[in-house]
Design a protein that fits this description.
Low-confidence stretches: 240-282
Number of domains: 2
Distance between the termini: 16 Å
Structural class: alpha+beta
CATH architecture of the largest domain: Sandwich
CATH superfamily of the largest domain: Jelly Rolls
Mean pLDDT: 75
Strand order of the largest sheet: 1-2-9-4-7
Number of helices: 11
Helix content: 25-40%
Number of strands: 13
Order of helices and strands: EHHHEEEEEEHEEHHHEEHHEEHH
Radius of gyration: 19 Å
CATH topology of the largest domain: Jelly Rolls
Largest sheet: 5 strands, antiparallel
Shape: globular
């Protein structure tokens, strides 16, 4: 079952309305709909690496990330993990299940200590009966994620690892520090590997090669984008992935494009650049 029991507690309506107003997902809703959502929502804090929902769980509502990060991922029978999305503050998930049948299509887990707001599905159903226009707001988000999922599939299946990493970096959130364009990864290289569909070792080798080529400079979790045009060229090329998802050295290898990047998360790592395999409709 979806993990909504235990520490969930109702938030004061006024406090949650202010919180919702600050989130892009709810900003366009009229005051009456915001107040109704706030009245029926509850909040819960999850420790890092706590499972929020498992594949096949019955879904009775949707979540909004207030603080922290939540990853959506699939597990292969042999245990291999593929990250689909990394959700940050202001991003909802479990939306697709509200409009379809069947259980939750993937696993969701808190990457860091995270506070989530949970909105029961019956709340949205009641609101839609009174004002069906609210459904268009949700459908826009679901449709956008479906588009991102298609881009992700293209990225993982048609592009090599260098391209997927280049795409991730180009769509990550940049920091301008003394004239240098830096990307501060908000996930470890191990999590980044799950996002781009490779092993941590392959990611490390590819970043090392990009560094030697003058495309990037890696210092811990900080990556300086030294040659943006070069990264764009790598991200735009198709590749013939070799072992571990790497393209042959010197070959075209260009994994994950912009969409895959957007798909996975928006925030530096969550920014999803590297072909983040997001299950758009979850």
């Amino acid at each position: 079952m979806i993990n909504v029991k235990g520490h969930f507690a109702a938030m004061t309506d006024a406090a949650l309305v202010l919180t919702l107003k600050s989130q892009e997902f709810f900003r366009a809703l009229p005051p009456g709909q915001l107040a109704a959502l706030a009245a029926g929502a509850v909040a819960k804090t999850y420790a890092a690496r706590t499972r929020v929902a498992s594949e096949g769980d019955a879904v009775e509502g949707f979540f909004l990330v207030l603080t922290g990060k939540v990853k959506l991922f699939k597990l292969a029978p042999e245990g291999k993990e593929q990250t689909l999305y990394v959700f940050g503050p202001g991003e909802p998930f479990c939306l697709g299940a509200l409009f379809g049948e069947g259980g939750f299509p993937a696993h969701a887990e808190a990457l860091t200590r995270s506070r989530l707001a949970y909105f029961p599905g019956r709340l949205l159903t009641d609101m839609a009966r009174d004002d069906p226009s609210i459904l268009f707001h949700f459908l826009r988000v679901v449709s956008g994620r479906l588009f991102q999922a298609m881009e992700l599939i293209e990225s993982l299946s048609l592009r090599g690892l260098p391209g997927r990493i280049a795409g991730f970096l180009l769509h990550a959130r940049e920091i301008d520090q003394d004239g240098r364009r830096l990307v501060a990864l908000s996930v470890s290289q191990r999590e980044l590997a799950k996002i781009v569909g490779a092993t941590p070792e392959a990611v490390s080798r590819t970043l090392g090669r990009m560094s030697r080529q003058g495309l990037v400079r890696v210092t811990g979790r900080e990556i300086e984008l030294c040659d943006r045009e070069g990264l764009l060229a790598v991200a735009a090329q198709d590749g013939d992935p070799g072992p571990g998802g790497e393209a042959s050295p010197g070959g075209p290898g260009g994994p994950g494009g912009p969409g895959a990047c957007r798909a996975l998360g928006r925030d530096a790592a969550a920014a999803t650049g590297a072909a983040k395999a997001k299950d758009g409709t979850a």
